[in-house]
Here is the input.
Amino acid sequence: MSSTGDLRARRLEDRLREARSRNFVGRAEELHVFRTALAGGPEAPAMLYVHGLGGIGKSALLRRFADEAHGAGRVVVEVDGRSGFAPAAFESAAAEALNCDDPLLLVDGFEHCQGLEGWLRQRFLPRLPDRALIVVAGRRPLSPDWRSDPGWAPLLRHLRLSAMSHREAAALLDARQVPAALREGVLSYAKGNPLALCLAGGHRQARRAVGRLVRGHHRTPAGVRRRGSVGLPPPRAGSVRARPHHHPGPAADGAAGPGRRGRGGAVRLVARAAVRRIGAARAVPPRRGA
Here is the structure.
């Protein structure tokens, strides 16, 4: 009787958390810092700022933080910065964090509302409960004003995400059940970028697209790759690659090409090209008997 009641009490979100936990790989140092902050204590940080290139795993890490906080019984308040909030709208979205004892406030996509930094630092965040933990993620570093503020400087910890190690990337492909024939090529080309690695472990059409792109990369002469070609099809008018760049500059998004400084941009081009091909394959149903 009790067992049946327990089964009925389970929700879909429990299954989602378990699946995410099984597939989460790496980031041991960042998880240690978060768990220390979540436990509290006089030396624990009150705010973590996670930053890194697009596709490097910031959102996945924040989801892991949220799952662990839920498991610890904390109230989790999530704000998506991609909505581009004004101060009043941000405060409305995060209002629950002002009204509980020990909330975890997660703000993702902060680069889209980074103009709120001064207001957050000086007005909103100081109103949170003393036991609150704040985690913000964005592509660009925070303003130096946070470090120069004698109040915030000891309470803030910066976590810059880098590419996965070869071992972590291989474990991620293993968790995603990527076919052995694709693994070495994907590991070589993705350079530890979680987005490209996850695409390879996604839908069957995604695996095929990434496989074609990886094979194209290995067939392309190194000299050509240095000039900017990564074995991708030429951009179509209006495609992602043909649009003007929206980010503040190559350094912020790793979009300098696939050379030594631009591997992140090259991998994202691969990921976007794969997404386009997957979308096209899904939009046109296969012919019967083909």
Observations:
- The two ends are 52 Å apart (CA to CA).
- The longest helix spans residues 263-283.
